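User: Sequence recovery, please. Input:
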């Protein structure tokens, strides 16, 4: 359906990528990954023919349709939300359709409208929003309306640039499930690992001016890439040893008449070798640690009988909250439940209408807003913004810190107004580091950060000795950091004194993503005691029914054990083959036969892919067996 052939693109003398080849077929689910600035959005523009490649070509199968959702900002006019979603408004800036060519009859128009209503509901629009002018929506809701328009149109190729940025967790769950059955191909850019793992069947990585394609989701891609790099490094080292051995012979004997011919032959042998390149060094990423702040008292912050409302819209009535030194708390709950408001109350950004906010001894709070513009001053340069700190620092120190956050050379003179979302996030982190708080309050800190930067942030926060309260819809980020969970819903706070897995166990959601929105809003009065769900009364079974049920469970356990053993045998077989091929790579002789070397490396890649797949299958089978054995033990 889409073919990208030998494409090259540069900007201002800087090569983004070259010799890019990519094929997208119907039904593909491809995630495009790579560090910020690698060229992901540029490749999208080339595919959309918004820019021309310096070399190569992009071609589509005749008759193919394309729909594109940009990362930020999309046009709206006076049309209603329903008109925009159903396509009747003729908004065309996001695709190549010509509104003059659109023809509707009553039946098709009615089907489009019905479909638009259903999709708008899935994207959390209320029915009362359908007749609202789209221009009155906030930016995030405008993007949702355009997303609805694309889903209604069902183009053959759906191109999505960070589609989860503007979605709350419940909407994101619906969106993920909807895309699973989408009839066309999907090409997406996202920094949400959970989303990619749920959806992608292939990963295309842009790294150091080239692209690599992998089969599987993001976790599988990481394992495959590491295996390839390990194999390449081993092959490179072995070849270098062989070259060193041959050169040693040449140096020792080229001056001797009796050995000169052999020495010359060794040189030609080296020249004929297909040289193996060493693995490329990783691209530059954010590298930092939070300076360890002054220790606070045991009680860090508390809210007592706090009330808060926006005008007549009541958010909280009489809530209590307390955080102690060293806490790692995550606030979870449905969109609009009041999580960001709670964080603003803790930060002192908004003031309670009644009740008390009380900071503990020697507590210095720092607030990282979901809206980065709230932390930064438009019109300033990056350097001037960073220097605006109460801390006593030199310009040299500030520029060094900015360099750690990838603001190099003239980047420090960029205006805040022109920074990308990721750059604003990194600058906000710089400002926190220059005046390190011992109570860190963070609202969606991973938004606009690439995966390498998220990893760096996780690593820094794990070493941070202050207290942390944060909001995130990134399951990976939450699991890595949270030791306590506060569920926020309908003006109530329900604490869970354990990490995210403990919260999942207590709320028993249907998935890790669902756990972020699970809780009281789905429960009936009396469903919970002490924060844990009370099981529904069991229907009484006869003794015969209980015996039959137990026998069925035993049969299921036995069958599952056999499946686990079968998969284990296959994994063992693959590991044996992998060990044999790896051993062969350690033999210097293989490097004098380029065809055999290529065959071995290709076989290793195939085995590694199958091994990753079988290992994932084995893990799922073992987990299912453990669940069945628990049922058997309780029956």
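Assistant: Recovered sequence (635 residues):
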């Amino acid at each position: 359906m889409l073919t990208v052939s030998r494409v090259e693109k540069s900007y201002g003398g800087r090569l983004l990528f070259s010799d890019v080849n990519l094929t997208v077929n119907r039904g593909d689910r491809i995630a495009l990954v790579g560090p910020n600035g690698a060229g992901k959005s540029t490749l999208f523009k080339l595919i959309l023919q918004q820019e021309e490649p310096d070399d190569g070509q992009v071609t589509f199968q005749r008759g193919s349709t394309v729909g594109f959702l940009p990362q930020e900002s999309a046009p709206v006019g006076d049309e209603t939300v329903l008109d925009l979603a159903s396509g009747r408004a003729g908004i065309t800036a996001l695709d190549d359709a010509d509104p003059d060519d659109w023809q509707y009859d009553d039946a098709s128009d009615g089907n489009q409208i019905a479909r638009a209503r259903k999709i708008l509901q899935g994207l959390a629009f209320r029915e009362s929003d359908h007749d609202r002018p789209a221009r009155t929506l906030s930016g995030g809701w405008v993007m949702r309306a355009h997303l609805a328009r694309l889903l209604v149109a069902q183009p053959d190729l759906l191109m999505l640039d960070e589609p989860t940025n503007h979605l709350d967790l419940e909407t994101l769950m619906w969106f993920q499930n909807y895309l699973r059955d989408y009839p066309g191909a999907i090409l997406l850019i996202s920094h949400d690992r959970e989303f990619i793992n749920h959806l992608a069947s292939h990963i295309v990585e842009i790294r150091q001016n080239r692209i690599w394609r992998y089969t599987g989701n993001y976790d599988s891609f990481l394992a495959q890439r590491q295996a390839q790099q390990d194999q390449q490094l081993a092959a490179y080292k072995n070849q270098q040893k062989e070259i060193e051995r041959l050169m040693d012979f040449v140096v020792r004997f080229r001056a001797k008449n009796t050995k000169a011919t052999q020495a010359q032959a060794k040189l030609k042998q080296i020249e004929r070798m297909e040289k193996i390149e060493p693995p490329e060094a990783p691209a530059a990423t954010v590298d930092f640690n939070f300076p360890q702040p002054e220790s606070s008292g045991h009680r860090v912050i508390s809210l007592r009988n706090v009330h808060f409302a926006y005008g007549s819209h009541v958010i909280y009535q009489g809530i209590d909250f307390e955080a102690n030194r060293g806490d790692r708390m995550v606030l979870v709950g449905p969109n609009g439940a009041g999580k960001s408001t709670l964080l603003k109350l803790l930060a002192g950004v908004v003031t309670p209408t009644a009740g008390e906010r009380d900071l503990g001894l020697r507590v210095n709070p720092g607030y990282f807003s979901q809206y980065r513009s709230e932390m930064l001053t438009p019109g300033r340069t990056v350097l001037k913004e960073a220097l605006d700190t109460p801390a006593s620092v030199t310009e040299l120190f500030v520029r060094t810190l900015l360099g750690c956050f990838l603001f190099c050379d003239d980047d420090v003179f960029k205006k805040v107004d022109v920074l990308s979302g990721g750059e604003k996030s990194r600058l906000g982190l710089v400002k926190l580091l220059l005046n390190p708080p011992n109570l860190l309050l963070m609202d969606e800190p991973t938004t606009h950060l690439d995966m390498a930067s998220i990893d760096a942030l996780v690593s820094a926060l794990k070493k941070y000795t202050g207290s942390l309260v944060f909001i995130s819809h990134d399951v990976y980020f939450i699991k890595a950091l949270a030791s306590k969970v506060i569920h926020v819903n309908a003006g109530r706070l329900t604490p869970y004194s354990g990490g995210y897995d403990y919260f999942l166990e207590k709320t028993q959601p249907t998935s890790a993503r669902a756990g972020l929105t699970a809780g009281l809003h789905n429960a009936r009065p009396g469903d919970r005691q002490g924060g844990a769900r009370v099981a529904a009364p069991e229907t009484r079974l006869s003794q015969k029914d209980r015996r039959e049920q137990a026998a069925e469970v035993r049969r299921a356990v036995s069958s599952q054990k056999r499946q686990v053993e079968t998969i284990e045998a296959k994994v063992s077989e693959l590991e044996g083959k992998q060990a044999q091929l790896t051993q062969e790579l350690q033999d210097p002789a293989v490097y004098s036969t380029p065809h055999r070397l290529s065959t071995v490396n290709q076989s290793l890649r195939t085995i590694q892919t199958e091994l990753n797949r079988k290992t994932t299958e084995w893990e799922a089978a073992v987990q299912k067996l453990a669940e069945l054995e628990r049922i058997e033990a309780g029956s």
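The CA atoms of residues 486 and 495 lie 4 Å apart.
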